[in-house]
Structures are given as structure tokens and as C-alpha cells.
Amino acid sequence: MRKLVLFTIIGLGLSACGGGDDSSTPSNNGGSTGGNTGSQYPVESVIIDLYTKGYSSEPLHALEGMHEWERQFEIIPKEDTVFKGKQVKSFEMLSTLKSNGGVVNIASSTSYFTTAPFTDVGGIEITRLYRTAITNNTIPKFANIGASGLISKTVTYGDSRETIKSNTAINTWSISKADNSNAWLCLNSTIDYVMQGNLDEDLSTCYKINVQGNVLDSKYIIKSANNLTFTSK
Question: Average pLDDT for consecutive 10-residue bins of the chain (233 residues)?
């Protein structure tokens, strides 16, 4: 069950996340802009619009044997505030998980970021886990199919004094082909848990976008033990 409920900041792809070693990062700090010469898709502006204008997903479904899971999330922009002495923007991520039609988990978290350029600052989960970005990269304004890059490395702590480390993670973006006209912009997190008994995770929230930057659909992928993909019907 824990695999399906942990990743609460699905919009940013950065909740319960942290840093990691350099061997897991993209090959260059700025990220790849893609190897083909086709249409370029907006990256930074789509991410900023999601967090400043909001987004509500359709119910996303995944089948595990005869067991049906449903996940729906909402990005709710919040007021500007101060986090770790820095003026930041913020949004709430509200996620509902259902199992065979019944609600099994409702999760909430708050993320902090800046714009011009977009920068992940950190966040606080409802369970009072504190996430802090220790490394940030500039996200490109546009990228081709096949492009990817680092967003941030983050550390999540179990207390506000940041003395009890919970996990580290590497957070990236990537662009892949959805169809002849659209692309999937995915926000990915590779999470490495410090405490024994917690399994590491690879999670992705993907947004189907067109070249104008409109979000047409979304999906959620667990690329670890469960290996589930939540999609709209």
C-alpha cells in the first residue's frame, strides 16, 4: 500500500524527495534539448502555469491483477510566503487514492518555488516531513522529443530542525512522444530512503502537452515494485 500513497506532490514530482549521487544525474547540468529537429515543446512555462494557475486531473486508473486502483490529484495555487528566509510562491497538492471504488488515502502537501527562472525550494508534507532543495538546475524554456534534465536534488527530513534525514532524491524532467502532435512532459523522482524497511522508489507524473503548452491529459507511473501506470480512461 505504501507504494501507492507516498508520492503526494505529484504536480511537481518532488514530494518526499531529496538529493542523490552524481551517477544518477543527467549527463549535463543543463539537460539535453533533444536529438531531433522536430517541434519544440515548452517546458518551464508549463511547469510554472501548473503551479500558479492550478490543475485538476481526471480520475486515473491502474489495474493490478483483479484489483483496480484509482488516483486523482489537484494542484491548488496558494499565496506567496517566506520559506527558509526566501520569498517564494507556493501550491498545495491534494491527492485521493481509491481501491476498488473505496477511498483508502487522502494526502496533502505544500511546495515552495520561485520563478524567473523556475527553482524548486522545498516543501512540507501533511505528515510534517520537511523537504529542502540542495541543488537546482535551470529548466529550458523549450525542448525537443527525447530531451531531459535535472530539476533538483533534495533532502527530506522528519523534523523542522533538519536533524532526522528521511530520504534523498534526484528530480528530473523529460519529454517523450505522445502522438504525432503532442508530447508527454514527465516530472520524475528517484527516491532513496535512509531508514531501513522503506523501499526505494522511482515515480513519474506526466502531462500530455501540445506545442502551445496546453495540458491535455496526465498520467502517473510507479516504476518500482508495483510497476503501475495510472491513466485516464
Answer: 39 39 35 65 98 97 91 97 95 95 94 96 89 95 98 94 91 97 97 77 95 97 86 92
Q: How far is CA 58 from CA 2, 49, 71, 205, 215, in A?
A: 22, 18, 9, 13, 12
User: What does DSSP assign to residue 179?
Assistant: S
Answer whether 231's CB lies under 8 Å from 57's CB. no
Taking the C-alpha atoms of residue 44 and residue 213, their distance in angstroms, rounded to an integer, is 10
What's the pTM value of the predicted model, to 2 decimals? 0.85
* Whole-number pLDDT of residue 33: 59
CA distance 113 to 171: 14
The dihedral sign for the CA sequence 224, 92, 183, 148: negative
The set of cell numbers assigned to 14 is 518532488
Contact by Cβ (8 Å): 47, 118: yes
Confidence at residue 148, expressed as pLDDT on a 0 to 100 scale: 98
Alpha-carbon distance of 58 to 70, in angstroms, equals 10
What does each C-alpha distance from 173 to 46, 132, 168 come to in angstroms? 12, 18, 17
Please give the pLDDT value at position 125: 86
Number of helices (H), then strands (E), in the chain: 2, 15
Under DSSP, is residue 66 helix (H, G, I), strand (E, B) or coil? coil
Q: Which helix (H) or strand (E) holds 73?
A: strand 67-83
